[in-house]
Amino acid sequence: MKSMSTAIAHDILSPLPVTAPREVTRRHLRLVPTPTPGMPVARATPARALRLTRRGRLALTTTTSIVVALVAWSMLGLLGPADATSSVVVERGTTLSQIAAQELPDVPLSQAVTSIQRANSLSTTSVAAGQELVIPGR
């Protein structure tokens, strides 16, 4: 037991090693003086330039490329040749199916009727004599 108490006393009574105090530098924290009247106002430091990572550059490039491609595609679609359209005046006793079969012979009848309805904003297949119908291009 004596050896254990001697060890404890030795640990307690022995001086601790002295280390040089470290200088703590915290660049993100600084003291800001309380402004008083007549004190010059400090200007804010300019922010650092934005740095893009490789993934950010890739995302930016991809997004820009897609936008440019979509704009070009839509412009070419608008500038392309338009389908030639014609118009027909409905005569007495003529049905929309007859007009569709006569004006669009290469298109199946149901598709021809539907395309004439869409071109003229018709909700039904009924037409009136003297009505002018737009016949869409093929």
Automatic annotation (TrEMBL):
The keyword Transmembrane helix applies. The chain crosses the membrane at residues 58-79. Pfam families: LysM. Keywords: Membrane, Transmembrane, Transmembrane helix. It comes from the Bacteria. Residues 86-135 form the LysM domain. This is LysM domain-containing protein. It comes from Serinicoccus hydrothermalis. The lineage of its organism: Bacteria, Bacillati, Actinomycetota, Actinomycetes, Micrococcales.
